[in-house]
Amino acid sequence: MGSFLLRRFAVWPAVLVLAAFPAAAQENGDSAVSGLVEISGFVDASYTYSNFDDSNTFGLDQVEIDLSRNLGGIGSLRADLEWVSDGEGGFTLDAEQGYVTLGLGLGRGKGSYPTLTFGKFNAPIGFELLDAPDMYQYSHSLIFSNGLPTNLTGAMLAMDLGGGIDVVVHLTNGWDQNVDTNTNKMIGGRLGYSHEELGGIGFSAMRGDRVEPLYRSDIELVSNLTVYDIDLTLTPAPGLIIGGEYNNSKRVPKDSDSDINWNGYMVMAHYRLTDVMGLTGRYDYANTSTTNTLRGGGKGKIHSETQQALTIAPTFALTDGLGFLMELRRDFSDDEIFGEPGSGKREKSIVTFAFEMTYSF
After folding, report:
1. Does 13 share its domain with 74?
2. Which residue range forms the structural domain that includes residue 287?
3. Do 166 and 255 fall into the same domain?
4. Secondary structure string (H, E, C) spanning 172-223
5. 7, 15, 132, 233: which sits with the fewest CB atoms below 10 Å from its CB?
6. Do residue 195 and residue 255 come from a single domain?
7. What pTM does this model have?
8. Are residues 188 and 286 both part of a single domain?
9. 121-167 pLDDT per residue, tens
10. What is the CA radius of gyration of the chain?
11. 31 and 134, same structural domain?
């Protein structure tokens, strides 16, 4: 499999060469070479179990290498390369992020200037972060998985307005679309406020066209999507982090009389019990409803589904960069949604367990 990866992904030699630069610089004392690029990343492995069919497996979930370069006083470059498990024993290579960031002050020291980010970047919306080392549990919330984009491709302006207030605006392709030929791009932004001691709050909105494949079909569905999101972080006591998020979205498929409305919220708390051990608890709620336009112009509900999840996760920090956690999660719904459609075995609830270990470098 190693030779296959080398043949298929030409980026491997470049990554290996870049990784060799810091070591060579340390041996030769050449600070210019060591300053060429900074390399970081993580390895994420897990064991998972589901009571639905008693399935369980060990797995290497993800390997990520992050490359960054400082462009002096005017900006920086960033590329995050990730190898993610495809769930069938193989791995797929993707560029999670790849962008250039420019301070529009162009090195001028006085004043506050916007920052331009151009390329592919993590979506600046929501409470939870994407990568395993930045999470307080193994799984993401229902909001993260269903109500938010993961990455956006386009342009983003960010500015610190002072007094703990910051603003972000972005114009991008559709939802997680690296290439998008639609006329209507996705426009959005976030207004945030942070307090050093108490935490922060953010208000986000996005609107534009989203393209997604229909289930088990080569046909793509184009919808006009509007999303509103509020995220909250509180730090009321040392070692205690409380997070909350509310999300509402409306999807209007083109050439259709149906509207799909989605809303959900989550609350979580993480408490650091000792320097080594912490404990996380989270509750998720989500409701999806589909309505049709009636002859008189009103709306008639034709389907509604509610899903909830409870998660508890002890966390352990063993040493710098190395940690592990255990997660017990129960998902339940008012409809039989768990299991393969058409299999004849569908359930209203499912319990999963995960053990995860990560190392960041």
Report:
1. no
2. 40-360
3. yes
4. ECCCCCCCCCCCCCEEEEEEEEEECCCEEEEEEEEEEEEEEECCCCCCEEEE
5. 7
6. yes
7. 0.84
8. yes
9. 999 999 999 999 999 999 999 999 999 999 999 999 999 999 999 99
10. 22
11. no
